[in-house]
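pinning this so it doesn't scroll away 📌
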Amino acid sequence: MVFTPEGHRDLECSEYAARQQRVRRRMAQQELDVLLVTDPANLYYLTGYNAWSFYTAQILVLPCEGEPLMYMRHMDAHGAHRTAIGIRAERVIGYPEQIVHRPAIHPGDWVARHLRDAGYGRALRVGYEGDSHFFSIRMFMALSATLPEWQLQESRELVNWVRLVKSPFEVELMRAAGRVCSQAMRTAL
């Protein structure tokens, strides 16, 4: 497999779509309607978005069927749609900067209300990344309080398990990286 610059973007788009489909199949096996992805590595794996402000709430809301949503601080949302592949700009939503790092309010409160307004305020089985360092207790509490219809369940590292099996695209990139590394070592020696 040889990658050309002009064909790379299309291949990248299909790769991210295939990754999301593999995750959705695993979600169906776990009987989840929605998955909340907060681990920066998993955000990158599923969308190509490099989580700039990983220390604040950033969530990919991946429904088993339908278009995903991404939530992040307002200043990051402006650029995220340019790097998040397969997510339309209007589906990348920035919460107000005034609620970042405030003791009386949490971005999770805003996100939960927005999700309710976006039609997610019904009985759903929602998986969350309980092992993610970036899914805070305050986020969990905000979602639980604002969306009590949700049955929140730990996803048991769902995306991480999908990531273990490499696609032909990923294998080729790993081989190309190995060739570059080998040439660099030969040159250094």
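📌 and the second one:
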Amino acid sequence: MNNLLRILGDGRFHSGEELGAVLGVSRSAVWKHLQRLEGEYGVELFRVPGRGYRLAEPLSLLSYEESSVVLTRFGWQLCLQDTVDSTNAEAFRLLQSGMAAPFVILAEGQTAGRGRRGRPWASPPAQNIYYTLALKISNGPQGLSGLSLVVGLAVLQALRHAGINNAGLKWPNDIYANGKKIAGILLELTGDPADVCHVIIGIGINVNMAATAVEIDQPWTSVRAQTGVLANRSELVNLVSESLHLYLSRHAQEGFSSLRDDWEANNLWQGKLCTLSTGSQQVKGLMIGVNEFGALRLLVDGQGEQHFSGGELSLRLDHDS
């Protein structure tokens, strides 16, 4: 399917005869492939007798060659797939099969993408970035402390290099641009977090997704919506990889405390009234930053400063803030 998409990705007309010749299949087989593109990938095609087929608009597909060149410099392996249920789930399976970390899973699309707190992550094919890095952590809590916030910083800087200058961070690991979510991060662990474990770092970035492509239950935006042009997804993947390597190396050497000021400088909700949902209760307070371990610092009326951390916490901005 990717070969067919790469040919059509230029947005120009291609005849069935031309497509069949390039792919080495019959014209009837081309027709079946085109039907699959529409049905399984949700790709919109234009058909004009005498001219052939073209996509409703150009696509930017991922490039194994371009991304592997960058990752090889870091000693990271690359697995690029057309479609998976979830890049995080695929990383778990590869670890269980004996594949050695570090490695990166990239997919053109996901059928069961996941966000934090079990929420679905919109994953239409050939439009966004679905990226998972599997790392081995050997120094226990020190290696995990503030890690999700560091990944958020890395993704934020990659987006800024891509031209998203108005982006910032929402604790613990979302990236917003112009008040709308543009990227999210999901960290999962396997092994003993007090000793040696693997951390699965899942990153989802809205890149070229159209507003009509999916239904999402919160305000969101994309790289294309912010810049006004079709983004090169492979270039953005490489920016993410380079930024991740830089920030993760610094975190491994110096810990989160060395990056705390950087994170707080990009905290969109600094000094604002927020409500923290802990599952069993809600806590209202003034966000005053994060501590040296990446835990949220809230100034709660009558109770002073309190710290919160954990994967099931959810922070939202109060409307009167």
